[in-house]
């Protein structure tokens, strides 16, 4: 399969620089006139697929909201991932997995192997057990043409406690994560700086300062726009010179426009207008 970074660059070019989240909060299910149950979850997801599948570059189901309904919720997630893929969207499973290597291997197979019912184009992972513990996911993603987004500097205020802590060499933990991802991308790069690697980082749009992203050569997912207070101007400021690698993520701010598919699509179009600067 074509490497994820290349497929992502192509999708962003064709559909615009946006990742829309599918976050079926109980409050949103109610607001959409749906039950806080598996049937409501399934209908919510179907409407999201209809609204975003053929227009948005990257769709990010928040796995936690599906797991909350047990095995039936996971079955809805399996269908949603498959339907989004058929509609042409890239699917980023926001699962934030991270564990010792042997367990990480099982997580990697779940989200990144060709034979898995939950296979996605990319998955989010947490480096809290050490960057090296992520090797099974990074290796499998490289082998199957999929991607990995590593939490570097998250959008929540609590994240700074660990992520801004400094190592002996003066780098913040967030910077070390970015640098490790950069090393992975540099091994994979074959044809110059224009190619987007398949190892991305998560950098919140709510931050006052981003880690140095100059050598990453990979995608930068920026959640925190809208409901968490981040703005398009924040994305522009944090992106610096790396506009083409940035993928802002918006979930609640778009989902609030539902359940009408037309209204959801209009919300996507409005949001994309605000990020026109990322296309120049
Ligand atoms: O640093 C992070 C990493 C992930 N997220 C996830 O993104 C969405 C944001 O939802 P909004 O409704 O747009 O606030 C959600 O799924 C988070 O779990 C994040 O916000 N920050």
UniProtKB/TrEMBL annotation:
Pfam families: OMPdecase. InterPro entries: Aldolase_TIM, OMPdecase_AS, OMPdecase_type-2, OMPdeCOase_dom, RibuloseP-bd_barrel. The active site is at residue 96. Gene3D superfamilies: Aldolase class I (3.20.20.70). GO terms for biological process: 'de novo' pyrimidine nucleobase biosynthetic process; 'de novo' UMP biosynthetic process. Coiled coil: none annotated. It is an enzyme of class 4 (lyase). It comes from the Bacteria. Keywords: Decarboxylase, Lyase, Pyrimidine biosynthesis. Pathway: Pyrimidine metabolism; UMP biosynthesis via de novo pathway; UMP from orotate: step 2/2. Residues 17-267 form the Orotidine 5'-phosphate decarboxylase domain. Its EC number is 4.1.1.23. It catalyses: orotidine 5'-phosphate + H(+) = UMP + CO2. One of its GO terms (molecular function) is orotidine-5'-phosphate decarboxylase activity. The keyword Lyase applies. The keyword Lyase applies. Belongs to the OMP decarboxylase family. Type 2 subfamily. This is Orotidine 5'-phosphate decarboxylase.
């Amino acid at each position: 399969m074509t490497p994820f970074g290349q497929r992502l660059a192509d999708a962003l070019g064709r559909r615009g620089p946006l990742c829309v989240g599918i976050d079926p909060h109980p409050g949103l299910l109610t607001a959409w006139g749906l039950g806080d149950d598996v049937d409501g979850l399934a209908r919510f997801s179907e409407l999201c697929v209809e609204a975003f599948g053929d227009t948005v570059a990257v769709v990010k189901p928040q796995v936690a909201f599906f797991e909350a309904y047990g095995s039936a919720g996971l079955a809805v997630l399996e269908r949603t991932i498959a339907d989004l893929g058929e509609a042409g969207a890239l699917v980023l499973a926001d699962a934030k997995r991270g564990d010792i290597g042997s367990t990480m291997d099982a997580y990697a197979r779940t989200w990144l192997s060709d034979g898995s019912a939950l296979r996605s184009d990319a998955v989010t992972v947490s480096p809290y057990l050490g960057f090296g513990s992520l090797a099974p996911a990074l290796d499998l993603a490289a082998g199957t043409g999929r991607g990995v987004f590593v939490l570097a500097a998250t959008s929540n205020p609590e994240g700074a406690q660990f992520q801004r802590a400094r190592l002996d060499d003066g780098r913040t933990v967030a910077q070390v994560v970015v640098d490790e991802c950069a090393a992975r991308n540099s091994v994979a790069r074959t044809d110059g700086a224009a190619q987007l690697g398949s190892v991305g980082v998560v950098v919140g749009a709510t931050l006052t300062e981003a880690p140095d992203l100059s050598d990453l050569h990979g995608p930068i997912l920026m959640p925190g726009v809208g409901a968490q207070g981040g703005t398009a101007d924040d994305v522009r400021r944090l992106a610096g010179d790396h506009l083409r690698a940035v993928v802002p993520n918006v979930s609640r701010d778009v989902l609030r426009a539902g359940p009408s598919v037309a209204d959801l699509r209009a919300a996507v179009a409005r949001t994309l207008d605000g990020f026109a600067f990322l296309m120049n």
